[in-house]
Design a protein that fits this description.
It is built from 11 helices and 8 strands. It is of the alpha/beta class.
């Protein structure tokens, strides 16, 4: 039986709510540059996240903490220039929203004005409620992020699954309801038990996007470089590699080097 899928010319925050109400899953991937954004957008992905994971996959840092607001704006601007259809969400980096709601708003405004992005994402629950409210009140769409929050890695001390204990699970449900109430248009749930994620998705009317949160949520997100197999050292259970680009690219680059050294490249057809 074929499933009717509506063709959306441009994805907006309202589109995502409509997709949830129609039980249509939302696809989301990261991108950090113009070329990759063009490919991802042209492939029909609904949401592109300009993630602070750029700190890891683009800059080589161990955590997401070092990336700056200026650097996030640079990546977001590059992505926006390559996008025609996808909704672009940009992470507010560590230190730009946690302690001061006025600074949070200034940070979000800079991202929206200087990059042309469509929305921002913040990690956390009630601790950052004031920041989220202030940003939403200014007319900027906000995506929430609960569960494993990588910007708090030094607090947790580990990237292990979150909310396995009853108290943390209860707080997560409470925070998710709060994020919906203050006006977030969607929430990312990272690395939490599938059963808990399913409960939250059914409880909320806004879309819930999972990463390591099982299949019973409204959509999925992965880091592009991980999904394409450009990275090798990151191997969580939730990651499915659709290609092995690390090996393919290494082979191609080695062949190029060999061809140059043996004077096989360029040949007569490849010169003027």
């Amino acid at each position: 039986m074929s499933i009717h899928k509506e063709v959306y010319k441009r994805i907006t925050v309202k589109t995502l709510t409509d997709m949830k109400s129609k039980n249509e899953k939302i696809s989301m991937l990261t991108a950090y540059d113009y070329t990759m954004a063009q490919i991802v957008d042209g492939s029909g992905i609904d949401v592109i996240l300009v993630g602070d994971s750029a700190s890891n996959v683009m800059a080589g840092h161990e955590t997401t903490l070092p990336i700056t607001l200026d650097q996030m704006i640079y990546h977001a601007s590059s992505v926006i220039r390559g996008v025609n259809r996808s909704l672009v969400v940009v992470d507010l980096p560590f230190g730009t929203y946690q302690s001061d709601s006025k600074e949070a708003l200034r940070s979000a405004i800079r991202i929206m004005k200087e990059s042309g992005a469509h929305s921002v994402k913040l990690e956390g629950g009630k601790e950052i409620k004031d920041s989220i409210k202030r940003i939403i009140n200014a007319g900027i769409p906000v995506m929430g992020h609960l569960g494993l929050t990588p910007q708090s890695i030094y607090k947790f001390g580990t990237y292990t699954v979150r909310a396995k204990e009853e108290a943390e699970a209860a707080k997560l449900i409470q925070d998710a309801k709060m994020l919906e109430k203050v006006g977030c248009f969607a929430i990312v749930l990272e690395k939490i038990p599938a059963k808990l994620a399913a409960t939250i998705s059914k409880t909320l009317s806004i879309p819930v996007i999972g990463i390591g949160a099982g299949s019973e949520v409204d959509g999925q997100v992965l880091v592009l470089h991980d999904m394409l197999g450009m990275t090798k050292q990151f191997n969580p259970r939730f990651l499915r590699r659709y290609l092995s680009l690390y090996d393919d690219m290494s082979k191609a680059i080695s062949q190029y080097s060999k061809d140059v050294k043996t004077k096989n490249f360029p040949n007569k057809e490849e010169q003027y």
